[in-house]
Specification:
Elements: E1 4-9, H1 15-25, E2 28-33, E3 36-41, H2 43-52, E4 60-67, H3 71-79, E5 92-101, H4 108-127, E6 138-146, E7 149-155, H5 177-185, E8 194-197, H6 204-213, H7 235-248, E9 256-261, H8 264-277, E10 283-287, E11 301-304, H9 312-315, H10 318-330, E12 336-341, H11 346-350, E13 356-362, E14 365-372
Parallel strand pairs: 5-6, 8-9, 8-11, 9-10, 11-12
Antiparallel strand pairs: 1-3, 1-4, 2-3, 4-7, 6-7, 12-14, 13-14
Helix pairs in contact: 2-7, 3-4, 5-6
């Protein structure tokens, strides 16, 4: 069995969550760096990682890495890589994205152009051809230059893994599915516990939580670019992994997962997204403001993405909104609250200092994951801890 290195990018600050997911799948970690985890696996691991990982953005095959401070070195380093092991004669290949950080080569367009030429030269020599039709399967590359070290990854995913396939309707400032899953996994919540999102928007937190409760693999209802790579990843491997995902999934369970939003149209969109995900029966959605948030039971969780106030007129309303959040939380006996926001006065108006505060980048926006941790429930009680 041939092992290869696979690169799984993720949100900055959530590498530990992804590392744990990969270890749970049974694969060996080779390195953890800012925004990515590299691990060892075989071709089947590509299938499992794409279908099962909740917090990864995509899965790349690490074709190789080398040092380059000139474009000649970039050309020769790229040409030296064994592209023929991955790309067939009719394969369509290109550098889809090039990122340069603290490196002497910094022009993405030049990096992309030079690497494409080097790949063509290598494949011309290996296949004995002077030109390529490139009318077969697609093989996009993602390249990162960090301190003059070039790391070349072949994208097996295609459309980002946060696109589960269920969200066709979005609210303003939606949180991505991968980020929502990772944040939930940072909490002690599990499917037998109460979860409420009072700013549910398009329903991402409740839907991802319901999928976790049902052990539903996040990628089981979508396709991946490398499914077209018949010569590299046998179709039987994909079939086996999708069948395994189906066998593990159990939606015939009881849950207490709720999503509220003040906008009725947004609530309708959340219900439709949940229906498309196959978990609508596991979530209760309702039009309700945060000021009316109540629950009769103890030891529940609020996990939410409240408004940040990115526009000036919205920012003026934040003190009152976050005061209401604090008051609602105060009424919930023995609950825990987790919220992600870029609002730097959140603690002041909630009226309590967070027990933990984790800095996370939501795209280019620096946000904070405030964690107000409640008491642990007593042992050997009902899973929903009724009074």
């Amino acid at each position: 069995m041939k092992y290869i290195e696979l690169i799984a990018p993720c949100h900055f600050g959530l590498e530990a969550v992804l590392k744990r997911e990969i270890l749970d799948l049974g694969y060996e970690i080779s390195s953890v760096e800012d925004g990515k985890v590299t691990f060892l696996g075989d071709m089947e691991a590509i299938c499992y990682a794409n279908v099962f990982l909740r917090s990864a953005e995509r899965i790349l095959i690490k074709v190789g890495s080398f040092r380059a401070v000139t474009f000649d070195e970039l050309f020769e380093g790229t040409k030296a890589l064994a592209w023929e092991e991955y790309i067939p004669e009719n394969g369509k290949f290109w550098v889809a994205k090039a990122t340069s950080i603290k490196s002497r080569l910094f022009s993405p367009s030049d990096i992309q152009s030079i690497m494409k030429k080097a790949m063509v030269e290598r494949l011309k020599a290996k296949y004995g051809r002077s030109w390529f039709e490139e009318n077969g399967a697609s093989f996009p590359l993602r390249v990162t230059l960090m301190k003059d070290i070039v790391t070349v990854g072949l994208d097996t995913t295609g459309i980002s893994l946060h696109k589960r396939g269920y969200r066709v309707m979005t609210a303003k400032a939606p949180i991505t599915e991968t980020l929502a899953s990772a944040l939930i996994m940072l909490t002690p919540w599990h499917g037998g516990r109460i979860l409420v999102d009072p700013f549910c928007g398009s329903g991402t937190f409740p839907i991802e939580a319901a999928m976790m409760a049902a052990n539903m693999a996040p990628g089981m209802k979508r396709s991946f670019l490398s499914q077209q790579w018949d010569g590299l990843i046998p179709r039987r491997l994909w079939d086996g992994v999708f069948e395994d995902a189906k066998d593990r999934c159990d939606t015939n369970i009881d849950t207490d997962i709720q999503g509220y939003d003040i906008d009725g149209d947004v609530v309708k969109a959340a219900r439709e997204n949940a229906r498309r995900a196959g978990v609508d029966h596991l979530i209760h959605f309702q039009q309700r403001p945060v000021s009316e948030l109540r629950h009769p039971k103890k030891y529940g969780f609020i996990i939410t993405n409240p408004p940040y106030g990115e526009r000036i007129e919205e920012k003026e309303a934040l003190p009152q909104l976050y005061t209401q959040i604090g008051e609602a939380f105060g009424r919930l006996d023995s609950w825990s609250e987790y919220l992600i926001t870029s609002y730097d006065q959140a603690e002041q108006y909630i009226g309590r200092k967070a027990d933990k505060n984790r800095k996370i980048y939501n795209g280019m926006l620096k946000t904070y994951f405030y964690q107000f941790i409640g008491p642990k429930p007593p042992a050997r009680r009902d899973s929903r801890y009724e009074e």
